[in-house]
Prior knowledge:
The chain is an alpha/beta fold. It is built from 9 helices and 18 strands.
Amino acid sequence: MKNKNVVVIGAGPVGIAAAAHLIERGLKPIVLEKGKNAGAAMLEWGHVKVFTPWKYLVDAAVERLLNKTQWRYPDKESMPTGRDIVEQYLIPAATLTALKNAITYEAEVIAATKTDLSKSSSKGRDAAGYSVHYRIANGEQHSVHVDAVIDASGTWYRPNPIGLNGLPVPGESENQDLIRYGIPDVNSQRSEYEGLRTLVLGGGHSAINVVLDLLKLQENSDHTKVHWGLRTNNLEKLLGGGLNDQLPARGELGLAAKHAIDSGSLSLLAPLKVHRLTRQGSALKVHLSVGGEEQFIEVDKIVVSAGFRPDLSILSELRLDLDEIVEAPSMLAPLIDPNVHSCGTVKPHGVQELQHFDENFFIVGMKAYGRAPTFLMLTGYEQVRSIVAELAGDHEAARRVELVLPKTGACSTKRSGNSVVQENAEAPSACCTPSTAETTACCG
């Protein structure tokens, strides 16, 4: 595929890495980024510090491009915030290197298809290229025709709802003004939480970050009440890897949360099932069960940190090979099953595990993991290195493993500016996004 064009959807860490590898291989990347800058989604959790040192966050091909500029590698042992990663790594890569002419910003992809072929059309399908349709800021729609597509759009914009069945609970959609998803910046938005009652839902370290930030507000306002709802009653899942963990800070957030529960400053509701929400003036009445016993609480805000799922709607006319449970590529799914694996136990993988029925189309990064929360950024970098080698015709390099992971937890997130903090995102492995799932998750 020498001299061919490849669309990369998303200019996050894995998308930027894919583009850098494409340039090195003599292929032309066309990066379509929904936001106004590289790493736009990461800025939405920019206040969160990952437990992943810089040495696990910089892709080798991107580093080689940056080394041709005045860029300086941050302290390799320090742990940045999401904003640090964007401002000190992604934006320099996107603006100072050969990537600067490859990225179109405020370009929201609305569909990727085989050129002039629907999903049901087979004649000439293998020889056909791809058409990627996108919308720019003024609402105009455009299309680009390419030889391959790498979808690195992530999952941040599709958070899981409250319901245990994967659906919004009754009253959730109608009360969005009182519900936040992901990891809100409690400290900078303190007026929304201080002196109020907040229910945090989720069993990952993203949820713990939110809980501990709320407890910090509670120290200065006795009227600030914090409830934490977990699907299961197993706090041990939130602890780190102990002596076997090569990332020493992992687990501290879980320990801090346990201390708050033991001291009585945090109300733990577990195992919890939310049945419905009803409006009570400016507050919400939450109808729920704890351990099977029905009850209700009234809160002013709900924060849902319950993980994410991929948006597959833009791929509806492509022939995908996805696992029905995890919604990851079928060959990858057994390797990332969160019932078996944590982020540190997922083996490095590449083009062979990421193939679909339509050739030269790939889903990478966190989106490749579907609903599994075990993603590590380093793993995403290995994915795109392998895929780009395959597209360039270097089949040996594509099948060679060039990644060695830390033993257990390259996974984590940590509250910026606090002494106690924690795990997973995006994993010390790296994190593209913080963990929010009710497992030993990594990058949510």
